[in-house]
Write a structure and sequence with these properties.
Helix 12 links the parallel strand 15 and strand 16. The longest helix is centred in the N-terminal third of the chain and has 17 residues. The chain is of the alpha/beta class. A seven-stranded mixed beta sheet has the order 9-8-5-3-4-10-11, with helices on both faces. A five-stranded mixed beta sheet has the order 14-15-16-17-18. Helix 1 packs across helix 2 and helix 2 packs across helix 3. It has 17 helices and 28 strands. It folds into three domains: 150 residues, Rossmann fold (3-Layer(aba) Sandwich), CATH 3.40.50; 224 residues, 3-Layer(aba) Sandwich (Rossmann fold), CATH 3.40.50; 99 residues, 2-Layer Sandwich (GMP Synthetase, Chain A, domain 3).
Length: 524
C-alpha cells in the first residue's frame, strides 16, 4: 500500500481497534487511543488554521506529558515535523536549535523545575525570528495562545484536515532530534515517518511485544528512547504507557507496581538508583518480563544485581541513536546476563552492520573499527547541514562514531568512541560543546574536558580551565555561568584550574594526555 508507513495511519488504526483502551496513564488519568486520536485531530486543525502545515516545524519544550504527544500526533496528521527540545535546555541551546530548524510554531510548558518558560520566551522573542506562533501549555499571556484553547476550538476544517492528511508521505520528516558532534554544533537528525516506524516495528517483533504489555514512559520524549522505543512501539501493538514527567525512582517503582508494568527501559544509572532506593523491596514487580538497558554497557555487577532484583524478567541491551531513529541492535531474548554484560546484542530486522577502518574498508570479525548501519531505520540526514550529512550518511549507511567489533555469531561489541562523547546518566555529552561555552567567559583563556568514570552517573565531565592572566576565577563562578547557558546535565561536575594544557604539535589540546595524567594522579 502506498505510504502505509505513516504515523497517523497507525494511530487511526489503533483508535479503531482499541477505542476505549488506555493508551496513556498520566497522573491519575486514563487517556484512550480514541481520545489521543480525536484531540490530536483538533490540534492539527488548529495548526492548519494558524498557517502551520506540511514541512513546517513545530518545536516542543515540555516534560513527558500528554500535550507533548498530542502535538507529535497532530504534526504527523498534517506532515509537519516536531522539533523535540529538552526541557533542561537554556538560552544558548534554544537560540541555536530554534533558528537552525527554522521553527514556525513553539509549544512550551509554562514552567518546569523552577524555571519560568513563559517569561523566558517572552523576554527572548527577538532571538527567535522564525517563530511566528507561541503556544503555552498552562497560562497564556501577551502574544501567545493557550494549548487548551487550540484543542477546544470548534473548527469547520474536517475536509481541510483530511486533504492535508492524505498528502503525508512516509518520507516526510516526523521529528527532528538534536545530537551534538565533534564540532560542538548540535545536529538535528531528520527522523522520517518510515524510519521511526521501521525501528519500532523491528523492536516489537524482536521482543515479541503484545497488546497487553504496559510500558513505563520515563525516558524523555525528546530522545528516541522515549518517542520510538516506548511510545511508537506501544502504538504499533496497542499497548499502554504510564507517562512519568521525569525519572524518579519512587515514581517509577510505584507505577510499575500499580499498573503491573511488563516492560521497563532505562539507562544503567536509573537501574542503580532504583535498586538502591530504600523502599525497593516493598513493591510488587512480579509482572515485569523485560528489562531494557540502553545508553551504555551494563557493568557485570549491575547485571547480576538487576537479574536478582527482577527474577522473572529478562535483562536485555538496546543500542540505537537518533541517526537510526531508535533501536538497531538488541540482545536476544535468551541471552544470559554475562552475555548482556559484554555484548550490546545483534542487529534486528533486516538492518545491517559493518565495521570500518579509517579508510572506510570493511574489517573482519573480531577487529575493532567504526560501527556503521544500514536499513529503513536510518534517518534522512541532518537538517540544514549538508556537509555534516554527507560525512555521516553515505550510500544508505550511517557512520556512528562508535567503535566496536562483531564476532562470528553476529554479536556486536561496543569498544569505545571515535568521538569524545561521554554518557552522563543516560545523556550524551560532547566536551567540545561545553568548551565552546566556557571559552566565551571573559576570564577563561582555554578549556578542555574529558569524560571520567563515576559510580552513580556512569561518566561525568571533568574540565580543565586556563584563566586569563591576571584574572581570579572560582569554581562557583564557572558553574553559575554554565547553568545560565547549558542544560543541567551538561554542567561540569569537576573543574580544575591549571596554568597550561598539553598541546599536540598542531597546537590542539592533547586529550589523551589529559586522561593519562588524570588516572596516573588518581584524579588529582
Amino acid at each position: 500500500m502506498e505510504n502505509a508507513m505513516v504515523i497517523h495511519k497507525f494511530l487511526k488504526n489503533a483508535a479503531l481497534r482499541f477505542p476505549n483502551k488506555p493508551f496513556l496513564f498520566y497522573e491519575g488519568r486514563q487517556i484512550t487511543y480514541r481520545e489521543v486520536d480525536t484531540i490530536s485531530a483538533k490540534l492539527a486543525s488548529s495548526f492548519l488554521e494558524m498557517g502551520v502545515g506540511r514541512a513546517d516545524k513545530i518545536a516542543v519544550v515540555a516534560p513527558n506529558q500528554p500535550e507533548w504527544l498530542y502535538t507529535y500526533f497532530a504534526a504527523a496528521k498534517i506532515g509537519a515535523a516536531v522539533v523535540a527540545l529538552n526541557v533542561r535546555y537554556r538560552l544558548t541551546e534554544f537560540v541555536y536549535m530554534l533558528n537552525n530548524s527554522e521553527t514556525k510554531a513553539l509549544v512550551y510548558v509554562e514552567g518546569f523545575g523552577g524555571f519560568n518558560f513563559s517569561d523566558f520566551f517572552k523576554e527572548n522573542r527577538t532571538s527567535f525570528p522564525t517563530v511566528e506562533k507561541y503556544i503555552c501549555i498552562g497560562g497564556g499571556g501577551e502574544g501567545c495562545v493557550t494549548f487548551t484553547d487550540l484543542i477546544q476550538r470548534r473548527l469547520p476544517g474536517q475536509e481541510r484536515l483530511e486533504r492535508a492528511t492524505e498528502k503525508v508521505t512516509e518520507s516526510d520528516t516526523a521529528i527532528i532530534i538534536y545530537t551534538s558532534g565533534t564540532t560542538g554544533k548540535p545536529k538535528g537528525a531528520m527522523i522520517t515517518n518510515k524510519s521511526i516506524l521501521a525501528s519500532a516495528m523491528a523492536e516489537v517483533d524482536h521482543f515479541r511485544l503484545a497488546e497487553d504489555d504496559v510500558f513505563v514512559g520515563n525516558l524523555p520524549l525528546n530522545h528516541v528512547g522515549g518517542i520510538t522505543c516506548t511510545i511508537t512501539t506501544s502504538l504499533i501493538k496497542g499497548a499502554s504507557v504510564v507517562l512519568i514527567p521525569s525519572f524518579r525512582p519512587d515514581l517509577v517503582l510505584e507505577a510499575m507496581a500499580k499498573f503491573r508494568v511488563t516492560v521497563f527501559g532505562g539507562v544503567p544509572t536509573m537501574y542503580a538508583m532504583m535498586l538502591s532506593f530504600s523502599d525497593f523491596s516493598k513493591y510488587d514487580l512480579s509482572a515485569l518480563r523485560i528489562c531494557i538497558a540502553g545508553g551504555s554497557n551494563v557493568e557485570p555487577q549491575l547485571c547480576t544485581d538487576i537479574t536478582r532484583a527482577f527474577p522473572k524478567a529478562r535483562l536485555l541491551n538496546l543500542y540505537g541513536l537518533s541517526e537510526t531513529s531508535g533501536a538497531c541492535v538488541l540482545s536476544r531474548l535468551d541471552d544470559p546476563p554475562e552475555k548482556v554484560a559484554e555484548s550490546i546484542g545483534v542487529v534486528i530486522d533486516d538492518f545491517r552492520v559493518r565495521v570500518l577502518d579509517e579508510k572506510g574498508n570493511d574489517l573482519p570479525p573480531g577487529e575493532v573499527g567504526e560501527l556503521a548501519f544500514q536499513g529503513e531505520c536510518v534517518a534522512a540526514g541532518y537538517y540544514g547541514l549538508k556537509e555534516e550529512t554527507a560525512e555521516a550518511f553515505r550510500d544508505g549507511w550511517v557512520l556512528t562514531g562508535d567503535m566496536g567489533c562483531i564476532d562470528q555469531e553476529g554479536y556486536v561489541y561496543l569498544k569505545g568512541r571515535k568521538k569524545e562523547m561521554y554518557i552522563q546518566g543516560g545523556f550524551n555529552v560532547y566536551p567540545v560543546e561545553i568548551e565552546n561555552i566556557l571559552t566565551r567567559h571573559p576570564k577563561v583563556l582555554m578549556a578542555a574536558g574529558i569524560g571520567v568514570p563515576d559510580a552513580l552517573f556512569g561518566e561525568v565531565g571533568r574540565f580543565y580551565l586556563v584563566p586569563v592572566p591576571g584574572e581570579s576565577l572560582t569554581e562557583e563562578e564557572i558553574i553559575a555561568y554554565c547553568r545560565q547557558n547549558l542544560a543541567d546535565y551538561k554542567v561540569p561536575k569537576q573543574i580544575e584550574f591549571v596554568d597550561e594544557l598539553p598541546l599536540t604539535p598542531a597546537g590542539k589540546v592533547h586529550k589523551s594526555l589529559l586522561t593519562k595524567r588524570l588516572f596516573n594522579n588518581n584524579g588529582k
